[in-house]
Amino acid sequence: MVWMNRRQFLQSLSATTAAGLLGAAKPVSRPNIIFIYADDLGYGDVSCYGATSVHTPHIDSLAAQGLRFTDAHATSATCTPSRYSVMTGQYAWRKKGTGILPGDAPLIIDPHQITLPSVLKQAGYTTGVVGKWHLGLGNGNIDWNEEIKPGPIELGFDYSFIIPATPDRVPCVFLENHRVVNLNPADPIHVSYKAPFPGELTGRDHPELLKMKPSHGHDMDIVDGVSRIGYMEGGKSSLWIDEDIADTLSTKAVRFIEQNSHHPFFLYYPAHDIHVPRLPNRRFVGKTKMGPRGDAIVELDWCVGRILDTLEKQGIAQNTLIIFSSDNGPVVDDGYHDQAVEKLGTHKPAGIYRGGKYSNFDGGTRVPFLVKWTDHVKPGTTSSALVDQIDLLASLATLTGQSLRNDDAPDSINLLPAILGRSRTGRQSLVEEAGSLSLVEGKWKMIRGDQESAYDRYTRIELGNAPDPQLYDRAADPAEQHNVAAAHPEIVKRMLAQLDQIQSSGRSRP
Questions:
Q1: What angle do CA 354, 358, 362 make, to 5 degrees?
Q2: What does the alpha-carbon distance between residue 179 and residue 175 come to, in Å, rounded to a whole number?
Q3: Structure pTM?
Q4: Which residues, listed in sequence order, are joined to residue 323 by a DSSP beta bridge?
């Protein structure tokens, strides 16, 4: 008898599991898995979802060679909670402190909690994250000049190269594993979100020094000619150059793929584009008529192309599962004067959907979602199955032969057949988070209603807030123009009760 170690057993089990799901005649080797997570990219921002003012050939190739979803959602209309849900399989609103984080926030995921990377690492994958993190670091008082942990490594990643928070927040440095990159010990970094440091210049006081001026907020410390949120001093040798961020991150992603091409790997690639400040490399400036926002979309597409080219060169494209999506819906003016509003033209970042980032309407959470896995996902197909990014954890656990305990990933559902296009059946319902919570079930969407502000005058986005519940027929009125709550009080009552039950139960996974 030949005995197998745990890793060999899991490899055999995952191959058998995949073969059964895919109806294959023979076992399928475990695919490499890459999750490309765009930032603030709307449903209508890429050409395979209808954009005509910008062309995204590399992203479009994922749709042409794979599966395009039309009813896929982020769990939240803002970034941190969406990312939290992807990593943990738990709705972020279940845990306090999971809103948009400052750059010096502590890690909001318990290192003992099961995560997407820890599940795949347990299955024998080498795991890496390259890109925007924004889930906090350390335990509260970060010393940026020493080892910074806990962070991605403690959550199951073998390798980490990250932007700590967002491009518009300090500190404006990269972290590789536990340390700031290129830090000079003689020039230590200090970060504050309360008051500027003596001698540090701010955009509020020195707008003449800025290469991009703020439209609202973003007028604190000046780094690389851009005023940010928060204050920092020191670390001059570690500061990024905004126009080179995409090159830096995509190069690190390419190297991770190259170094791990001979065994199964998982790469989480949360790109920084098209988040503000939008300062794409000069190679992309002027590539669209929409100014920096449009050019940043082109830069994002180029980064996707680099990943695809690397897979081909390494000879592993056929057995790599690629998932592409965005953390929330689009925003045009998110704090800087970059002509995004003036040059928008006929482009509709959210497509036909109402609202955008920060909004309860579908423009806030309905996002592009593309899946490619050569020979296993039928090319050029479209699915209207209701899917949510939170389901990646349970679905990829199933693909790799993992079993979740009852308390693990309490809101993540195994939708692997739908994600691979083998079933048209997706979720029965999902909860979305913005100003209020919303429940989507079949053709209905109910926004609970407990907020007053209906419009953000800075971002010019309809927030979809109201003091009373709203109800929309998603089939007859996908643009959510007609609130039919008054005509269907019984449906509102039932959905409110269902939402209350999901909240109180602490879980939604069966």
A1: 30
A2: 5
A3: 0.94
A4: 35, 371
